[in-house]
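Suppose you are handed a protein chain with no further information: no name, no annotation, nothing but its sequence. What can you learn? This example shows the usual starting point.
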Amino acid sequence: MVDSANITVVGSGYVGMSLAVLLAQHNDVTILDIDTSRVDRVNAKQSTVVDNEIESFLTEKELCLMATIDKQAAYKDASFIIVATPTNYDPETNRFDTSSVDSVVDDALALNTSALVVIKSTIPVGHTKFLQQKYNTNRVIFSPEFLREGQALRDNLYPSRIIVGSQLDAAKAFADLLVRSAEKDEIETLFIRSTEAEAVKLFANTYLAMRVSFFNELDSYALAHDLDTKSIINGVCLDERIGDGYNNPSFGYGGYCLPKDTKQLLANYDQVPQNLIQAIVSSNVTRKDFVAEEILKLNPEVVGFYRLVMKEGSDNFRSSAIQGIMKRIKAKGIEVVIYEPSLHEDTFFGSRVIENIDEFKQYSNIIVANRRSDVLEDVDAKCFSRDLFGDN
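A reasonable first move is to predict its three-dimensional structure. Written in structure tokens, the prediction is:
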């Protein structure tokens, strides 16, 4: 077991920031980022992402954590280099854009001859093996993350499991570092090949997307037949084999992971017969179409969109389902206004941003909210939301 280590984390998004803070409890951790403003925030003990526990750890815990833009200094003495850079899905190539990961791996191997390079970014199945063969090394491995936005540190402190794509002693030492830094006892830890670990990540997120899609389509059926969705879901979910996770209807799955991971898994199926994976991807589009049509049936003149973030406790707009609804409403020529405290512009994709909540509520004929809020209680009669259980 490694008592303490020098660790470099490349990238300061949800994955990188939460891992850096987690490991900095017992190790010397350096965050490497190309964004100087993010580096300054970390060095000022401020989080780069919205996460209450990360923020409290930075101010209340004694962490050995610093950030830099100097890659040579960051890589020089590291025993472990964690890659946590973004891999967006590119619809033109029909796969993840792994250029940021590939660049980090290239630099890390060139500037450090002994460190274990652990990829935490989500990548296509087989990409780690490709990199191992390209550089003729076993020092590059994959270890998936299973984090929720806004609760990333908590999910590292109490992980459902730790999966490491290698049997190397250094890989086992890396797993020990994660276990030692967590607060949960008896964490299930799996050591498998990196290719299978990559598949675990994509299949796990696609299953969660399937859950979201299933209950959204249940809700669509109930709305179309004037049925009480909540009663149906309660009855279905009392079956312990089904349970009540991910059962709250929404406008669709969104955020950093599920939209791109489902599409990447579908792309990995290009030579394999399948029906379900395509259906999960297509269902998210169908749901947005259906919800937009339900709103249009109300014949609104002005539709107000309350919050654009993916979910409560997140600062992420990327692929948020409500934006898909907004685009469909605008395409019909209906005026759209937005209330989003995280926005500091007058307009967002051509729609007016209203900073005053009272003005926003008064001006809007219909208010669309993916998740309900106490702020909207006084205008509940003109709110459109499929949030039935008051959770994300």
